[in-house]
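Re: the request from the purification team.
They wanted to know what the chain is likely to look like in 3D before they choose a buffer screen. I agreed to run a prediction and write the result into the notebook, where they can find it.
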Amino acid sequence: MGMFPPGVEKRKILVTGLDNAGKTSILDLIQNKMVKSLEMQPTIGLMRREAEILGHELAIYDLGGQGQYRKLYIAQPKYFEHTNAYIFVVDLQDAERYGTAVEYFEECIELFNELNIHPKIYVFLHKFDHAYRADFNDPKKQIRDSIDSLKKRFVSIARRFKFSIEDFYKTSVFDPWSCYAATYDVWSSVITRLGSIQEYLDRLVDGLPDVLLSLLLDEKFNIIGKKLVIDEKSNADPIIDLANNAIKALVRFKTTRIGIKLGEANFVTVEIANQAVLIKIFDADGHPFYLVLAKKTGDEQEARKVLGHLADSMSVFLSIPENKNVDESSRLNQFENEK
């Protein structure tokens, strides 16, 4: 049965925000791994999606943000019941409606309080795009202060009802990694095994020299482990771009000759911005996984050996049956001791 037991209880992710905040665009990007949704019409009513990560089923509810629907949702608590994680999306470029967004957030938190449920709460500060990002980094402008003030308003509301906000994320569909990383943290809050997988990947990679990035993805290209090595003094953008482009290349494999080659040889090397990126497909518990690695130095043959070792170790770890009665950190330590 391994890590894919049948009949696993669904976990509910609720996503709200004003109309045109970008909720559906984020979810489409995550689900489809491509920016197809930039010109989408606002969600009318409720959109429900299903996802599965490591055998855990997620039900993702995207509530339309038009005024008449917001009133409907607040008046009918059933939309908020059984929520395990809650994402509120605010459009950073719609400063005129910050007040309305904050009021809606307060209504949602108050409703959770009345229902006596305490989901993990995340706020996506969305449309952190191009020119807006440049203004944010310009000390002569007040964008940074405006965002800080907005965050304080959200925190104050949550505290008033004895809730806490897990984190804020600046996201943009033009920077897919910002959305991948943010939603990965949300999934991790409801799928505890992702935490031990991430910890094990960190342990494997931390001992390797000159690694720029390593990514672990499941057969549907969901990110289930990530390690970007970014020096505090250096610009993070090249590494993030490398991660974005590596995922795009991997998604395209399914319909290309490279994809067929990867399926036959298990290894493939692609060049992204003059950087060699290695991809290996491996099996764990009867399911395919993808491991991506980029190193600063070393020849390709050496990098392949490193990637092969990582994949072998991760395959064994992923194939261990999940025990819901055992703390994941303890299980990881036990696995390390038994190796």
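For the purification team: DSSP finds eleven helices and eleven strands in the chain.
Please add any questions underneath this entry.
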